[in-house]
Amino acid sequence: NKGPPPADVHYSRFYRQVLAYKPTYPRYKRPMNLFSQGARRITDTKTFSRFSSLCVATNVVFMLTDNADAGEFHTYIIDTQNTVFFAELCVEVWLYLVGYGPGGFIDDPWKGFDLVVCLATAMGPILNNNLSEFAKSFRLLRIVVLMNMIKPIRVILETLLACLPQLSNIIVLLLLVYSIFAVVAIQLFGLTKFGFRLGPTANFGSYGMSILTVFQMVTGDEWQDILIDVSVEPPECTARFDSTAPGYSGIYGDLSFGDCGSSAAPVFFIIFMLVCEQIMLNL
Fold first, then answer.
1. Cys staple from 4: which of 8, 66, 145, 161, with CB 3.0 to 4.6 Å?
2. Which string of b and e fits 107-142 if b means at least 16 CB within 10 Å?
């Protein structure tokens, strides 16, 4: 397979360029009163853009200096600058709202991004302390705006956004493959007794825990120890809970199962690791 001919390659590149740089028109009508026109003149200037970027960069630098052992004065400086830059963000969002109307946040994703960050940060004082600190961290997302202003990084971001539809297909494929192995593992090792690694954080007792354990094994999280645990055989385990099983009270009667592993464990794990690694390598 030599791939598509050069003419098709050039056409595809040309078509992508046309889609990327075609003129865009607002879907929502902009307000035409004097206040809105003045707000648009302010927000469309390079000075406003540079000032906004400087505020974002300064706020991020201050937030990165925060630490658990910060003194009282340092905490005061952090809180003060957070308040000042949050007020600046509110003013910026207000100018967008006056200049472009509510539809402007839909027409321009970056304006909508600033609105989401502003609203998420404003929820901080309303929520409890833990969620309040989490809400404040939303301001760090504004560093994405700075990344968008740097052309090489903007190209990478645009590439990532363009790959998102294909990425969803890959995620579905991985989920299907992992689900197949997770269900098989439930049938083989769902009742196996806990061992060195097989335990509350990694087992095949339910689909949720099984799929989580499968993901852990794909990342190489002590899958060899899990293999040893699910290969347990008598006398280290009970083959069947019945009247002959030592230590079994018989309160539930004679059962048809025990807590041993399966002799097919090595085959299962080898096939699992080979299939999953081949899929990851060929994505």
1. 8
2. beeebebbbebbebbeebeeeeeeeeeebbebbebb
Query: Contact at 8 Å (CB) between 243 and 254?
Result: yes
Residue 202 φ then ψ, to 5°: -155, 105
What is the predicted pLDDT for the residue at 261?
A: 86
Number of residues that make up the chain: 283
Report how far apart, in Å, the C-alpha atoms of 17 and of each of 22, 23, 108, 150 are. 8, 12, 20, 19
| Extended beta strands in the chain, E state | none
The token pair at 70 is 């910060």
Read off the pTM. 0.58
C-beta separation of 256 from 239 below 8 A: no
Rg (Cα) of the chain, in Å, rounded? 29
The predicted pLDDT at position 246 comes to: 67
DSSP reduced 3-state for 105: helix
**pLDDT computed for residue 125 by the predictor:** 66
Stated as kind and residue range, the H or E segment containing 6 is helix 6-21
Q: What is the pLDDT of residue 127?
A: 65
Over the range 199-211, which residues count as b (16 or more CB within 10 Å of their CB) and which as e? eeebbbbeeebbb
